[in-house]
């Protein structure tokens, strides 16, 4: 277990932020992949995305294609939720916040050079993501221009962090809300 009964709220917050930071850096960390939940046309919509960076401001960066369905949802409603689960330590983190879209601006240009090799193909397909095709091979058509035309950085601005440490009947739960002065936390009944 990562969170113990004797941990103070500040320690719990620190442990969670430390794990989120590790998740962006370590390829095999359980927080490397995260579920992004959005609302679109009055329906919930979720998908796995790659947790690329956890910033000093406690923002999460995610890369996507500007033509994807998630972009339509985010343009209509920037509110989102991220759900992480650390299976080795039975730790669940649920973050809620708003997403800022960075497309062909200083932020997206900063991260584009780090998209290497076959990863760049995720953003240069000729057909937009979600386009109906007759066979899987029809999707294997990429632009010869290796540019950032469709590359987007989603900046998830964390507003709350709900922590649940599972422990066979002695679960620990805490909620942290971001304020102008930092983070305010409280313990909750699991």
How would you describe this structure to a colleague?
With 190 residues, the protein is α+β, with helices and mostly antiparallel strands. The chain has one domain: Roll (Pnp Oxidase, Chain A). Helices cover 16% and strands 40% of the residues. The protein has 3 helices and 9 strands; from the N terminus they run αββββαββαβββ. It has helices at residues 9-25, 69-76, 106-111, and strands spanning 33-40, 43-50, 53-54, 59-65, 79-86, 91-103, 151-165, 172-179, 182-188. Strands 1, 2, 3, 4, 5, 6, 7, 8 and 9 form a 9-stranded antiparallel sheet that branches. Strand 3 (53-54) and strand 4 (59-65) form a beta hairpin. It is elongated, with a radius of gyration of 18 Å. The two termini are 16 Å apart.
Write a concise synopsis of the structure shown:
This protein has 190 residues and is α+β, with helices and mostly antiparallel strands.
Q: Tags for this entry?
A:
190 residues; alpha+beta; Pnp Oxidase, Chain A; nine-stranded antiparallel sheet; 3 helices; 40% strand
